[in-house]
Amino acid sequence: MQISVRDVPALVVVTESRDVDQAGLEKWLPEAMADVHRGAGDAAAGTAELAYLERGAFDDEPVFVAIYEGDPHEGPVTVEVCAPLRADAAAPAGVPVRTVPAHREAYVRVTKETVVTGGLGEVYAAIDRWITANGYAIVAAPRETYWTDFPSAAMDDVVFDVGFPIAFS
What we know:
This protein is α+β, with helices and mostly antiparallel strands. The chain has a single domain (about 5-169), classed as Regulatory factor, effector binding domain (Multidrug-efflux Transporter 1 Regulator Bmrr, Chain A), CATH 3.20.80. The chain contains three helices and nine strands, in the order ββαββββααβββ. It has helices spanning about 20-40, 110-115, 120-135, and strands spanning about 5-10, 10-20, 65-70, 75-85, 95-100, 105-110, 135-140, 145, 160-169. Strands 1, 2, 3, 4, 5, 6, 7, 8 and 9 form a nine-stranded antiparallel sheet that branches. A hairpin with an 8-residue loop joins β3 and β4 (about 75-85). The radius of gyration is 15 Å and the shape is globular. The two termini are about 25 Å apart.
């Protein structure tokens, strides 16, 4: 598993959050992504504006960030779903907006096959082990950054990144 490190700029995002367990997450996540994307409207940033995602060879795709304040497999946790806004865009009125602080993160690219075969938990565990082994500390909740249509993706397509904000300990 390839674990990489990148710097993520501060992102102004349209946000929606809910306390959910895994079953609730699977039901709510697509709805929440649609809600925040609709709320962001024309101000929504895609992969073309978010160079740190390194998706330049692909068409501009919508981006969503899901921040997990715990493991939904263990019971209800707060999950925040965000749609980043373009840097040059005004925040839309009437929707919840906040700034996700800039950070450095350790991350892994995840294929659809990893998810559907039950391997996502090992991705989280591997990043956690790597962080400790390399002298870093986790400084904020882990997140998944999505940029593609998961249902229509092929099994070997990379569909999102799992990232942990880090700093030297």
